[in-house]
Amino acid sequence: MRLFQVQEVMWTLLKRTSLLLFLAIQAQANIGSVTDFTGSAAIERDEGFEVYDVENDLAVEMMDVVATAMGKVRIEFLDDTLVDVTEHSRLIIDDFVYDPDTGEGSLGLKASLGTIRYASGKIAKNSRQNVVITTPSAVIGVNGTDFAMIVNEIGGSMITLLPSCDSSGLCVTGEISVTTDIGYVIMNKAFETTYVDAAGVKPTKPVILDLDEEMMTNLLIIRKVEEVDPDGSIAAKKAAQKLADILGVDFLSTDDLLADALDEDEDERWRTELDDNKFFFGDLLGDILEQLNLALAKQLQADFDKSRRAAQQGEGYDETTGTRLSIEDGIWTLSRRDLETDQYFNLELDQNNGYIIDWIQQDFEWYDYRLGDGDNVIHIRQRE
């Protein structure tokens, strides 16, 4: 072998060795740190052979397990992703690679128990396809936004979409997908929530939780807080109030929102939610779960009523809707004539499909007329 060939082989080996060394160093490098905590919590490392009691500025690494008892932990990753791990929870950091020059990378988190709040950083904004967040029953796809997930002891998961808010009270709601082995849902409205029993079950149809101002405030994660608002509590209340206005919630008591932070005592000004031993996220979870159960019950009742109405659609003339329905050779024929204007429609529809029909004929309006079991939507508008 000639000298230049030997040099080329050695150079190739050197580059490969350097790359492997770089990857090994990166895998062990700090990828973020604990920025706030309260109560009892620990970081488990090296498959549990190393355990560190949580403290501020404690570095976190890939494959760390964050475990809490009666404690809460906030972790800030190098790309500004924020994760709150609340009481009786367990979170595994599966993957984290980040290039600060491009803002791109990958992030993998696995919530196996408890409640986790997540606020997107640069990776989710620039490489959203590389963000993988899982529970035992679902995979969550993130499009630059915030959400909370609750995982019970048997792996069932409740996921709530949260608005992304900054210290000025400005809130923007992004989008997440929740996917199981047999289906998925998309959520893009503030406080939309879905529940998944198991990986082999489709997520429930999203419902919007009816939350009061305090519940909204406690759910939000505030970014870039101002010096006079170090824990984000004032901004959170402002954001909650704005969201309440948008959602049509009437909050008559706004004394806390009108208080001037600069008029507070020094100790109170720098007091954080984590300093208040009376606050436990579990209390909030009970309220949220109650609201979810109420919303799901209303949804199930509405679906039942719709299916009952569909089942009751029989042949002949319906005095309530003014329609006439006939069935022949697998075809529904639905017609209606407005007696005042003589406006008329006639639909011939395949019984192998299902339909939701809305119509407006001059001053008469009817919505959600159903034939069969399906979601093909037909809108009819007839006006002079």
Structure characterization notes:
The chain is an alpha+beta fold and 384 residues long. The chain has 3 domains: 1-29; 30-297, Jelly Rolls (Sandwich); 313-382, no CATH class. Helices cover 24% and strands 40% of the residues. It contains 7 helices and 25 strands. The strands form 4 sheets. The protein has a 15-stranded mixed β-sheet that branches. Helix 3 (213-219) crosses helix 4. The longest helix is centred in the last third of the chain and has 31 residues, at 281-311. The radius of gyration is 28 Å and the shape is elongated. It starts with a helix and ends with a strand.
In short:
The chain has 384 residues and is α+β, with helices and mostly antiparallel strands. The protein has 7 helices and 25 strands.
Question: How many H/I helical runs?
Answer: 7
CATH architecture of the largest domain: Sandwich
- Tell the overall outline: elongated
Rg, rounded, reads: 28 Å
Mean pLDDT: 76
Strand content: 35-45%
Report the structural category.
alpha+beta
CATH class of the largest domain: Mainly Beta
Helix content: 10-25%
Given as residue ranges, the uncertain stretches (5+ residues, pLDDT < 50) are 18-28, 246-283
Report the biggest beta sheet as strand number plus sense, adding barrel if it closes: 15 strands, mixed
CATH topology (fold) name of the largest domain: Jelly Rolls
Number of domains: 3
Instruction: State the total count of DSSP E strands.
Output: 25
Q: What is the straight-line distance between the termini?
A: 92 Å
